Amino acid sequence: MSKKIGKMLIEVTSSLFKKPATSEYPFKKREIHKSYSGKIAFDKEKCIGCNICVRNCPAKALVVAKVADKVFEMTLSLAKCIFCGQCVVSCPKKALSTTDEFELAQSDKSKLTVKL
């Protein structure tokens, strides 16, 4: 029993002089890797309304609606989206792209549906 306490005491005292293993996240932002797939961005000028992105979305998180002649808007459900980027890959006109935005948590579920 005393050997265990001795080992624990050595571990505790050595930990006092080490740098923390965790990051200082909310106060110090991490650099995002260039291949990170965050929130989807939509360029309505490029969109032709083909709905390929909607069909290829495995989570069924996208809805494309026609607003005017050749003008479309997209609705993204952040609650459903798995941030796989399949919609970005499948868009023939490159109207979709991924951003490095990842702080998307909400306490109000209605805010998880976003018009892009």
Instruction: Give me the CATH architecture, please.
Output: 2-Layer Sandwich
Which structural category do the helix and sheet elements fall into? alpha+beta
- Span between N and C termini? 62 Å
What is the count of β-strands?
5
Strand content: 15-25%
Mean pLDDT: 82
- CATH C-level: Alpha Beta
Q: How many H/I helical runs? A: 3
Structure description:
The protein is α+β, with helices and mostly antiparallel strands and 116 residues long. It has one domain (31-115): 2-Layer Sandwich (Alpha-Beta Plaits). Helices cover 21% and strands 20% of the residues. The protein contains 3 helices and 5 strands, in the order αβαββαββ. It has helices spanning 2-15, 52-56, 86-90; strands at 40-42, 62-68, 71-77, 96-98, 113-115. The strands form 2 sheets. A 3-stranded antiparallel β-sheet has the order 2-3-5, with no helix packed on it. A two-stranded antiparallel sheet has the order 1-4. A hairpin with a 2-residue loop joins strand 2 and strand 3 (71-77). The longest helix is centred in the N-terminal third of the chain and has 14 residues, at 2-15. The protein starts with a helix and ends with a strand. The mean pLDDT is 82.
